[in-house]
Amino acid sequence: MKNIPRIFVGDNVKCGMIIPADKSVVHYLTRVMRTHDFLAFGGGTEFNAHIMDDDKSIMIGNQTEHIDPTGDITLYFAPIKRIDDLVNMATQMGVRYLRPVITERTVAHHVNWERVKKIAREAAEQSNRNSVPEIFEPIPFSQLELKNLCFADERFAYDDKGATQIPDNIKSVLVGPEGGFSNAEFAALDAGGAVGISLGKTILRAELAAAIAIGKLL
């Protein structure tokens, strides 16, 4: 089963459905992988599937027993220049929701979100998920709900206080941009009750910081 290609086909597929086949999917399966059989997934379920003889349609077969490893974690993140890497890693780690937040020091304002969604789909196919993370529209930091939120707090790299215990009910984490959070944003996070977490004594790239922060919630 490990060598069977996995393709995301949408969130509402069911056993017995016949759906249109994307030309790029047909080319990849029949020309590159040299097979008409694959695993189709979406919406948390996985099915055996087959490219039909007309090379234009997909037959959705029986549902497999594979359980979706996707978790309940929400990643709030400031868009960064290396956003492809951030989304790729977050998807592989099982994040369910990706919510961009525009902070004071955000510099990547012109993101190709369709490309980002494609990166997430490909990472989901590769990482054995049965679902693709939902990517929301960006919101300003001022609209962020700070309750039940933890955040990557680089201030831990400069002091000797111990690591913070993350309450079990917190499943959302915020990571700032390349330049970090502003003083005003730190003040708002502290006042709003968000839980700052340490990522160690070194300053990390934002995409690596996101991966480590996610790992602390797993």
The SSE order reads EEHEEEEHEHEEEEHEH
CATH fold category name of the largest domain: Alpha/beta knot
Q: Tell me the β content.
A: 15-25%
Quick check: average pLDDT?
95
> How much helix, percentage-wise, in residues?
10-25%
Give the overall shape. Answer: elongated
- Tally of alpha and pi helices: 5
What is the strand tally?
Answer: 12
Task: Please give a structural write-up.
The protein has five helices and twelve strands. Strands 6, 7, 8, 9, 10, 11 and 12 form a seven-stranded parallel sheet that branches. The protein has a five-stranded mixed sheet with strand order 1-3-4-5-2. With 218 residues, it is of the alpha/beta class. The two termini are 26 Å apart. The protein is elongated.
Short description:
This protein is α/β, with parallel strands linked by helices and 218 residues long. 24% of the residues lie in helices and 23% in strands. It has two domains: 6-63, Hypothetical PUA domain-like, domain 1 (Ribosomal Protein L25, Chain P, Beta Barrel), CATH 2.40.240; 74-215, Alpha/beta knot.
Itemize the secondary structure elements and their pairings:
Elements: E1 6-8, E2 18-20, H1 23-32, E3 37-42, E4 45-51, E5 57-63, E6 74-77, H2 83-92, E7 97-102, H3 113-126, E8 134-135, E9 139-140, E10 150-152, E11 172-175, H4 183-191, E12 195-197, H5 206-215
Helix pairs in contact: 2-3, 2-5
Descriptive key words:
7-stranded parallel β-sheet; 218 residues; 5-stranded mixed β-sheet; Alpha/beta knot; alpha/beta; 5 helices; Ribosomal Protein L25, Chain P
